[in-house]
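thread from #wetlab-drylab

HS: before we spend reagent money on co-crystallization trials with adenosine-5'-triphosphate, can we at least see a predicted complex? here's what I'd submit
DV: go for it
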Amino acid sequence: MPSTATHTVDAPHAADAPLIVMEDVNKWYGAYHALRDVNLSVRRGEKIVLCGPSGSGKSTLIRCINHLETIKSGRITVDGVRLDDSTRSVDAVRSEVGMVFQNFNLFPHMTVLQNCTLAPMRVRGVTVAAAEATAKRFLERVRIAEHAHKYPAQLSGGQQQRVAIARALCMEPKVMLFDEPTSALDPEMVKEVLDTMVSLARDGMTMVCVTHEMGFARQVADRVIFMADGQILEQADPESFFRHPTHPRARSFLGEILAHH
Amino acid sequence: MGTTFGLGELGFLIQGLKWTVLLAAIAFVGGGIGGLGVALARVSTSKPLRRITGGYIALFQGTPLLMQLFVIYYGLGLMGLMLPAWVAVAIAFTLHASAFLGEIWRGAIEALPKGQFEAARALGLHYVPRMRDVILPQALRIALPATIGFLVQLIKGTSLAAIVGFIELARAGQIVSNQTYAPLLVFTVVGALYFALCWPLSLYGSRIEGRIARATAR
Ligand SMILES: Nc1ncnc2c1ncn2[C@@H]1O[C@H](COP(=O)(O)OP(=O)(O)OP(=O)(O)O)[C@@H](O)[C@H]1O
Ligand SMILES: [Mg+2]
């Protein structure tokens, strides 16, 4: 369901409690104020597309969710777990949050299958057999099972990114974060990755995607969030956002994006 | 009373060679373990740990191996630790190798793309599996040529152990040379033995280097 700008933070029954809650989050890189009073809550099953000009803090925002970045002030809660800097909360959150990077970041010395089984074995303690069964299921799902025994360098960019998606899915996360998953790809490979993401969305995965693929946003996003200068300036369902962006920065940003596509 | 260079003398040199190999092996194994600790400490989040190991590396890289041998050999003696020469020498070489290997491996760990660390963390991998399964296998591979290069230096460096009376290959050569009055012949043999030990390693090192260069160029 598309939702509009306002959102409140509360903790009712677990099932309909938001999966991710960020309250008044502030992030600094040295003297640079990278996130300014960010408030965001993501419902279970919700698909969010995060966009905005370069340097606006999109990556920073999603990297705070799995504690790849630490925040200066504010609160982040994922599936009821309040992220403090304790190992326990970080572990709990990371095991529920999958992340896909712009540069894939597959482990080059491991086969596709080993990439997918490592974390379930080491983090969840499942057996090799169980981890491989899960891995094969998800590799099947991203239609790359036939390459399970190859090394990442033997695959195309699009294939590598699909493996990276499968690797994250093998931990059976509750939410998937995507940081510009298609922007390092040759144009002809963008579609195969977007198709994978669309099918994931159809299956009900909660997703927070930093992307400038506006077609993807229209197709799957429940909410498009526009950021600039470390702030969330606008959020709306894709139709309203693309038709009538209200903030001037959003308007000029959309103008540029559309001119390039 | 000179003797001629015969099988007995050659056998004596081979004895020396055995000590050279053993000393280098001990130093390499000890230095491998120590160096791993040093490298991990250098990239750790603890500032004191980074400082201390940084100082240790600076000290051992900034002084001649000969001085290190002297200080450790006589230093241990002054502290009342009367160790056999080879133990003192093995300790000195191990400390030396730990510093150099630690620095080589630190560089390799830091040369890995940040994304590798991030992907491992994002998957929830803890420190031990993150290092053991993801970071170190890649870092050690990158560092293999430099590591082998250091091992070759180490083998040749063991000749310095002669200075504290340890009879390894170079010292054995000196003794045989004094007995036979045939320094040219003796040291040619000694040189050939060192070469037979070091050259295959160097060759292996440059092979690997070439293979890594081709793999990364791909
Ligand atoms: N590790 C860091 N140290 C210092 N400054 C940083 C660091 N990471 C990001 N920044 C700065 O913080 C700001 C936000 O960066 P961020 O990567 O979140 O932007 P972004 O919206 O993802 O941009 P892009 O579209 O280029 O990926 C930028 O000005 C960037 O230079
Ligand atoms: Mg970014």
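DV: Chain B has a mean pLDDT of 92.
HS: ok that's useful, forwarding to the group
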